Amino acid sequence: MIARMQDADGDAAGPAPPFHPARLDGNRVWRVDTSRGTVLQKLYAERGDWLRAWGREVFSWLRGAKTGTRAAARRATEARLLALWRQHGCDAPADVSTDYPELAGPRTLVLEFVEGPLLSDRLRDTTLAPAARAALLAAFGAAWGRRHRLALELREPALLQEHGTLQHVIVAGAPDAPHFVTFDHENAFARAGDMEAHVAKEVASVLPSLYRSQPRPDGQRLATEVKDAQFREDVKALVAGYGDAEPLRAACARYLQPRGPAWGLICRIDRGREERTGARAGKFRVLGLTRDVLR
Amino acid sequence: MPLQASPAAPITLRLEQLERRPLAGEGNYVWKIPFAGGHEGAAVLKVYYGSRGWPLYAKKTVGNLLLTGRTSQMPRTRYRNEVECIRLWERHGFRCFGMHPEVRVEGLPEQGYMVYDWTPGRHFREYFRDASVPLAERLATWRRWVPEWHRRHAIAVREREPRLIHENGDVKHVMLWQGGFLYFDFEICFTSHNVRDLVGREILAYMRSVGKFFGPELYEQMTDILVQAYSDKALLLSAWEHAFHNSNPLIRVARSLDRFKPRHKSRWSKYSVALDIRRRLDSASLTQG
Predict the structure, then answer these.
(1) Cα-based distances in Å from A101 to A29, A96, A106, A111, B150
(2) Which of A32, A201, B126, B240 has the fewest CB neighbours in a 10 Å radius?
């Protein structure tokens, strides 16, 4: 109950999925220590029963906006995206499946094990000084902005995260020169189409996770005004590194002043639901705070 | 009179002149015989034309070939399988009983027997429940064995070779010998080329026997070590897939009905053991969902 309340606040992860004896309900990632070092073995499994898995796939195929949702398609997408990201100098774990054929297979990939905390955990660390926090966010903003500009320039949707979050970013390397290694690339936008919309989608999913990634001194729930103030500072630091903030402004505008009747209706329904639950880290609320800072 | 063993020189023995001491062997005649040059001056004579009658061989063969996806029960086929399997396993670096094909035994049908090295190792079944061996030492042995177990499974899957799967695999058919591990009993093999499923079946068979012979406390510890030391976790998950998520939809439906049988409610049923492995793999996973 408490976990669910905290989750509604957007401050905690949801409860663990129920154990189903006859199906896996999602991927597994294992750390494997080999004689040649530590790697991760990722097993791609279906989510839900076969009816749900096929239903999701058919819906996704009809929309045509995203890559396949079945386990094999997600494995192929991840392998392709990891190679693409690294080819363009964006930090992502290396796919080392060819080096570890004994661990790789049609349903598994072997990935480089990247040492380091998650960016979300690092930002929740109560010992992180404000200046160091701002520097970390500025460095992340620089990498983030560079990738967005690259994606827009190349019109490459695979360089954008379909479900971005700071929980999928590892802070690697030396503290004074951190690398932000982004993982979980199994789902991606399938078509270039409206690239600005893809960027906006990523921004609208990453910023709520930034809002959630705040330290809680003594483990106490923070007042909304305190969290909002910290978030504004975080956005300022992020934007300082990001460079030209036009994609961020456009993302805010896309959700807060939606254009077109269909998109407007979707946003109105979504926003109404968010307001009813009162989630502090809700997408529309966080984008509103961001828009205020960008002004 | 014991004869001198030599790999090259043919040796002929007469069955009626041999001093034979019966050893365990279900369906076969297995005797310890004097054999100069062999370990402790002895060898093992295994005769595949055993105590079972032809109707039983035929019945079991029909079941194996038509229903359970195994090789024939007929004596010559069992002889051929065992010899071929030993050569295959040894080629991949897994130790088995040394064979003496140069020995001919008069009075026995050709290709119906084989003389093996007398190998008085310690069966896993005895070793792991021997309280005089410190627990830490026994668990270290298990931890040392699991990677070898995985290596065999990985080769079997890679080469799609069902004969590298131990059809009668359990803790009764592995020995500790001269610091290494030694495997035996290969008369029957699987014929399916869905080797991944066979790997899952074998893992369940071994772990069920661990539970049955060593008890729940040691089983829990040995299963923990299995999940830690078996490097290909996805392949280890094939144990759960074999019982709960078979790639063949017909078998999957059959198993979902089979689970309700009273005998499968036991602690060491394949379903219970499969779930034990699955839960541990879930816990070891960095993420779920």
Answers:
(1) 17, 9, 11, 12, 14
(2) B126
Report which residue type is found at A253.
A
Per the CB < 8 A criterion, the answer to whether A49 and A23 are in contact is yes
Beta bridge partners of A109: A42
Amino acid at B226: L
Cα–chain center distance at B81 = 13
- Residues in chain B whose Cβ is within 8 Å of chain A: 154, 158, 231-234, 237, 244-245, 256, 275, 278-279, 281-282, 284-289
Give the best residue of B160, B199, B231 to mutate against chain A (max A CB count within 10 A): B231
Measured CA to CA, the distance from residue B86 to residue A23 in angstroms comes to 37
Task: List pLDDT tens digits, range A234-276.
Answer: 999 999 999 999 999 999 999 999 999 999 999 999 999 999 9
Burial of B259 (0-12, 13-18, 19+ CB in 10 A): middle
Q: Provide mean pLDDT across the span B184-196.
A: 93
Contact A156, A150 (CB under 8 A): yes
DSSP string, B148-214: HHHHHHHHHHHHT-GGGS-TT-STTSEEEETTEEEE---SS-B--S-HHHHHHHHHHHHHHHHHHHH
Whether the model clears a pTM of 0.90, i.e. scores above it, the answer is no
Q: Which amino acid is at B157?
A: V
Whole-angstrom distance between the N-terminal and C-terminal Cα of chain B? 69
Q: What distance in Å separates the CA atoms of residue A24 and residue A49, rounded to the nearest whole number?
A: 9
